[in-house]
Amino acid sequence: MKKYTAIVIGSGPAGYTGAVRLAQLGAKVAMVERDHVGGICTNWGCTPSKSMIESAKIARIVREAARYGVNVSSFWVDFKKVAARRDEVIHRARGVVTRLLQHHGVDLYRGEADVVVPGRVKVRKGQLDLDGVKMHYTGDEDEIEAEHLILATGSRPLLPDFIKPDHPYIVSSNRLITIGEMPESLTIVGGGVIGLEFATIFSNMGSRVTIIEFLDRVLASLDPEVSAAITEELKLHGVRILTRHQMLSVEQGYVRAENRATHEVVDIPGQAVLMAIGREPVIDRAMFDRLGIAYSAKGIGVDDHLRTNVPGLWAIGDATGKSVLAHVGMQQGIVCAENIMAAPGALLRRMDYAVIPAVVYTIPEVVAVGHVPAEADEVQSFKVPFSSNLRARIEASEEGFVKVWIRDHAVVAAQALGHNVSELMQELANMIALKTPTHAVAEIIHAHPTYSEITRSVLEYSLDRAVDFIMPAPPSGS
Length: 478
Description:
Radius of gyration: 24 Å
Distance between the termini: 62 Å
Mean pLDDT: 93
CATH superfamily of the largest domain: FAD/NAD(P)-binding domain
Strand content: 25-35%
Number of domains: 3
Number of strands: 23
Largest sheet: 5 strands, mixed, barrel
Strand order of the largest sheet: 1-2-3-4-5
Structural class: alpha/beta
């Protein structure tokens, strides 16, 4: 029986990052994976969706090329090539993760992991079929031991109780992201991050897209101005959005939904129906109950150091229910690894969830970081439109704005909608995390013309000294 310092169950962003960091610190590491290496992000999430969004962006640019003086008489989207490029990007990303693990000496076991007792794992060995869809088990088993076990089992798409997983018209995000044929029409149930990103992909490639959202607005957790702006952008490019609607049923290609205010019932035709109402952690209830691991519907219970209630067992990533963002899982993997390898009696590293940048890869993008204070008298908000930025005007990307919330001369939250705002937000995220005074960054030279100048603009505006646009009347607290 092989013995390791740590066994990681699951090779997603949290799992492989933790495994690599453990190996860097001198640990002997094993990893067990029952599916493709790289987990959800690499195979069914970040990587394929962003690959397809890039194709959607190109389709948008070509469609609107005339405003740049480039006339394109006709074009079409070859979805088979879009899918082929997506699959190539996935394979390359999967290969990068595999090589990382190999380089750092991590032993990879393919199959199903069963924690027999804390410290001992039985691996039911298997092999994926040629399509990479189903694991075929060989009947052989490996047993391995370690001082520490890390559960990084991920999450899966959430389905309502009344929807059967094999419903002929229902697709999950995992399935939709791997299709080879573009649907003529798509109905999306859920106006959150996943729903809006898929609406962006398929509406820009020619599908008729309808979003059904139960709440009063899409991206309801964000500032109302952000929700209103992205709603307007999606509608402008052909997406039908029905807020305050509840899905009642799916029958023969029609989604039946009810307006929660008027009780009017509408039937929405759709070649495919995407359920995008969230994700749930992958929990092996029988195994966890047997081992005494504390868990709930939200995920595996962990403390700030990523320890479960069972000594020697740790949990990271989506399975903890703390976040479904890959970058949070990666940070958890690093923190967990460093805590496992900490010297006896050393102060363990705590996981800090206070400042987490979040991105919605729509066109244009939406980002948010920090927490908007509920008390209006403690904070002021300042908003600068992208139209004030020279680079945005040059590139005809004037849609959107950056909005910050300031308290005691420091940024406490920021949200934005605009071209590549995901690349702008980190500067503001760092300011929030480090509690940097607004004047300290506002006084730093920002290259001209660049989108980064809009960060300086909004900070200068908060100091009542913006010089690159006409400042409106002083804003009220919000």
